[in-house]
Design goal:
about 450 residues; alpha/beta; UDP-n-acetylglucosamine1-carboxyvinyl-transferase, Chain; four-stranded mixed sheet; 12 helices; binds shikimate-3-phosphate
Length: about 450
Amino acid sequence: MSGHGDAQPMKSRKSGPLKGVAAVPGDKSISHRSLIFGAMAVGETRISGLLEGQDVLDTAKAMRAFGATVTRHGEGAWTVNGVGVGGFREPADVIDCGNSGTGVRLIMGTMATTPITATFTGDASLRKRPMGRVTDPLSLFGTRAYGRQGGRLPMTIVGAANPVPVRYALPVASAQVKSAVLLAGLNAPGETVVIEKEPTRDHSERMLVGFGAKLSVERTGEGHVITLTGQPELRPQTVAVPRDPSSAAFPVCAALIVEGSDILVPGVSQNLTRNGLYLTLVEMGADIEFQNPREEGGEPVADLRVRFSGNMNGIEVPPERAPSMIDEYPILSVVAAFSTGKTVMRGVKELRVKESDRIDAMARGLEACGVRIEEDEDTLIVHGMGPGAVPGGGTCATHLDHRIAMSFLVAGMAAQKPVAVDDASPIGTSFPIFESLMNGLGADIRRE
Ligand code: S3P
């Protein structure tokens, strides 16, 4: 399931009770950052628990192209010998970031203040996604970008020879844009300031401090004001990548809707910038116990004991919660279909520019499974049918989007008739063991 090969149709049939332990792979956001920050440190960064999904493998390849030595020693065990801030060399060929918006946007930021030129491309999904949100602030440093219409890939970035630091208020709540600006600020003299009205995932800030950058975050009336002092020497780190809460969402939500289920999902991040789905599920009436709270890999985590929850009710998800659960709306909309009453998701237009237009992909697929949907540009409303009451039987288009594929395969586990997806190959970008992990818990997911 590489996400780069032929389409792989898959079908999910009604599952018996899910039982056992769901140990999901490493966090995708932290995995990308470990490789990129390691490449900018002087010396050897050691990483354990790295997600070996295609998105992260593409970032590893890119870091090699910019001059870092990136070595795999065993499952999830990698080292990066970095070239130092400003030490990137010009790549000899086009950088292909595959399906990964995080990969391409963070790497563009990282090279933007070094006087080299690089051309970026990606798969058909990534080539549709807007890059102007990153190249606009990068131009303030003196970086130039030449892409297709609408700021689309392929795109050539000419790094600034004499970068100036910038002060930038994010117009969209995006951790990718925030991170790209901070990474560019690393090689600009003086202080680069990023202001975000709504907090987004804070892995870049936490990890940059760990790697030795001078960075402070102040909460003001304007929002979070993040100040980074440029041109530090980054120190190599030992990074233990925690498990991915966005991947954990799939077995958790499957257990909530499959009758008789009782599973344990260890080490799920409780980072407030990532845990919006879990707050929402509890408000809907989900039976989730948060056991053994502790710290792992610098993140607060807990083990989640999750049982089938036949009494979940639809809710209105607070729009200000969107950044902390932005990747989880597709699977939430599946849980919503198996709940009673309607679930209203407002303030979610960012979903339209993810790996696919996720509002449209979920609306069409749920309709194909017999669920009533309402949508507008910024809203998705799912009319819940109650536990076990979703007819299923549809074939859902995944549009090169891993989370759409996984969401519909979870729906098939509890629907009355099987649910098919036209292409499950993108799952390999973020959760390569999805099929074996889910079947190990008791699912019946098969390649067609
Ligand atoms: C990510 C940020 C989010 C998220 C993506 C990972 C990151 O994107 O959807 O999967 O690692 O910074 P946006 O910044 O576009 O919201």
